[in-house]
Amino acid sequence: MAEQLIKPDLNFINDVISSGGESLKKCFQCATCSVVCNVTPDDKPFPRKEMMQAQWGLKDKLFANPDIWLCHQCSDCTAYCPRGAKPGEVLGAIRKMSLQEFSVPGFMAKMVNQPKFLLVLLAVPALLYILIIVSQGFFGDVSIPTEDGKIVYGKFLFSLYYVDTVFTATALFAVFSLFLGITKYWKAMSATVPNANKGTFGKAVVDTILEILGHNRSRKCEVTKGRATAHMLVFYSFIGLFITTVLAFAKVIPEYFEHFGTHLGIDQSLLNGLTVIYKIIGNISAAALVLGILLMITNRFKNKGKAGLGGYYDWLFILLVAGVGVSGLLAQFLRMANTVIAYPTYVVHLCLVFFLFAYAPFSKMAHMAYRATAMVFAKQSGRE
Amino acid sequence: MTEGKTVLVVGGGMSGLTTAVEVAEAGYKVIIAEKTPYLGGRVAQLNKYFPKLCPPNCGLEINFKRIKNNADVSFYTLAEVEKISGQEGDFDVTLKINPRYVNDKCVGCNACAEACPVEMPNEFNFGLNKTKAAYIPHNQAFPFKYAIDGKHCKGASCAKCVEACKYDAIDLNMKPETININVGAIALATGWDLYDVTKLDNLGGGKIKNVITNMQMERLASPNGSTAGKILRPSDDKEAKNIAFVQCAGSRDENHLPYCSFICCMASLKQATYLREQYPDSKAQIFYIDIRTPGRYEQFYWKVKDDPNVTLTKGKVAKITEDPSSGDVIVEAEDILAGKKIKARFDMVVLAAGMVPSTKGSKISADISYTEDGFVKPSSLKKGIYAVGTLKSPVDVAKSVQDATGVAIKSIQSARR
Fold first, then answer.
1. Chain A: residue nearest B200 by CA?
2. Domains of chain B by start residue, with CATH
3. CA distances from A248 to A254, A378, B211 (A)
4. What mean pLDDT is reported for chain B?
5. What is the pTM of this model?
6. CB pairs under 8 A between A and B
7. What ipTM describes this predicted complex?
8. What CA–CA distances, in Å, run from B232 to A38, B203, B216, B217, B241?
9. What is the pLDDT of residues B158-170, one digit of tens each?
10. Nearest Cβ partner of B339 from A30, A33, A44?
11. What average pLDDT does chain A have?
12. With an 8 Å Cβ cutoff, are A45 and B248 in contact?
């Protein structure tokens, strides 16, 4: 083997330790973790080698590694670790740090993962909506328009301008930023696997999607059994809510044109039918979301002895998702109850949704893109 | 010449015997109180000592002879310490002597065991086989006297052994006795228990038939063991020719025993030689985190390592499953040096389990506090009470003997106060 000079990055070791991997140095490389892990490939299994790389400060090796995301943090390793080195939590910390490495712009990831910036980040959507509300004169003498005395959010913040434009822009930003991030990750991984057994990209993508849809990996977790179910509820509710959004958008498009004086000639009953469908999907999804996230929270507390409770990075995301679900349902119920507090609730809901999506490339939400990317890379390079 | 009081030695294993003979041969009176029906303790259960690979009786016999020939040593078997009061130089101790149901007339003819209808797990062989409720613990037992197990014996209603005994040696009406003695010093030499491997849920301890402990392996290989020294696996008595040794089974593990038990690496290397000597085509694979063979033991490690049929694999075994159809055992580990997860099939698996100080299981009526690792803190003992050998740390026979000689002189000093 060629001689290799190892350049340990001491700051990196300290960063891992301060980012939730404080148990890192306890590892004595016995490899219990790699054996009890049900999701690792048999060849060069994780997480033992990652624990060593982290102890040695081999930052680039770790970040350019699909394995840090192939890990689903089942915590079987943490439960059986004879030293309390918590490999699951160390890899969690490394994943969080890799977001700071790859996401664009990188400073956002630092902000999103530090509690001291929470208010600043929240202030962005809050100020945005306050500005919109003020500009509508609702804090002045303009009363909120209603439709036959009923609360209609569309009359408050004209959906076509203020909700849809803001969110379309936010979504585009998030998708673009995520794309830049995962491209950097992919390039870094490709550089480390020069002679990879390259399979077809398309097949790797299809296999990854099927695996994610079935949650085949997280089902293999033993200590944190039940997390696959909770995650599936949240995962599919997000898909449901995405479909709801697309359908709702499809419904408002004719209204846009109408607004500009162009009639598309679409049958109104068709649009009404569409409304019924997306309302059903939306409500089921919202209920599943709240149920799933509650299950996640209970699971975390139930398993905290063996799997750890998680840190700010985890809880910001969990509480945000919970907040989106709860505020969304509340906004709907309060609207139906026809009470004025429906409006502020709706604004809170919008702020939380903004937070979730605008900061997605930097928060734990980004796991979906990075993990999926790692899975595709692993499959294509013959890693598994 | 004896001035000063008697020394009480609790425990008749290698540490206790050594303490006792050293004290007695210095001219002081000694009483040994042993819990089981025989002397010799854990050493009696071994097949061979490491590193010289001689049988344990070569050490034990000498000590038994020294006891027999020395009028200053007396011993009680089936004895437990009930109460200790007083201080250095003047301890009042209450001993409870459990009934043996067999008196000194016993000649060891085995007629009672043949007549006895009750079977019980053979504790001496760690449950590998059964014995009668009228039994001799093993064929080299000292004293060579049968005993009847009070818990399993049906008592006077059966009494088949009484009929069978030609020497009038059995008395099923024996009652526990209480004895009060006054001693000047107390040496606690109650030894160690093997860590309970049923707690190792991922290693199949106690669940998979062909997963045995290192102490069971000693009994399997021992000529006076459950298979008369043939290494046969428990499920089907098939010759176990391909054996995995799982080091640190519960040791160096904060979920079980946080410390290294010191002896298990040498024990597994030694047991690999049992296998290699018995079956020329046999294979042993030892899975380890680090092989710890301190000092001159390193040479023993080199010797075993040189055998091409002994494989040493760096990587802790963390999963063991059973192939129900064949009874074979599947062992999973990461071969760290190769960077590959391996699944290998073996006839039998030996868990190299660690030592737990015996006072953890059966409490002694003395104030004892423990170190973080669970061993006796010598400073916590009352003046005049000393702990010996494996109560204080996990050590081998040689170190226990060394420690016992030290405790002997300390006990003499206390007994003279």
1. A80
2. 7-98+176-193+356-415 (3.50.50.60), 111-164 (no CATH), 196-353 (3.50.50.60)
3. 11, 37, 62
4. 95
5. 0.91
6. 62
7. 0.89
8. 33, 20, 11, 10, 9
9. 999 999 999 999 9
10. A44
11. 89
12. no
